[in-house]
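Appendix B. Raw example, untouched.
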Amino acid sequence: MRTNSRGFTLIEVVMALFILSLVLSSTLFAVHQYADERLRIRDRILANQVAWNHLMENYQYSQKLASRSPGDSLKTKGVDTQGGQDWRWEIKVEKAMGQDLYRHEVQVSLEGSDNFQSSLAVYLVGK
């Protein structure tokens, strides 16, 4: 009597499960990295929005800078809420080379963090 079994051996099943576990773990790692990168990009975009908002506010009030003495620099700090998070911002305005030319630099970070998420600088002409 001859039996013709057509199943998988234990070694074949173990190897298939091992390969499947490698594929699934690498996929899980890739998904985790993607989620982390999305959070970093979101934070960077929100920080840039805060920085641009304050640069535009400074631009609207740049006429006041003409009355200052040439060597002065101005620093302003504050906290804004954007996207449900508190963002610490700091604006530094200083006289640049040239007549009536001022450098406005904004640095933005998450409240409680020392690392800046965004740093923007523009040059504005005082009137």
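End of appendix B.
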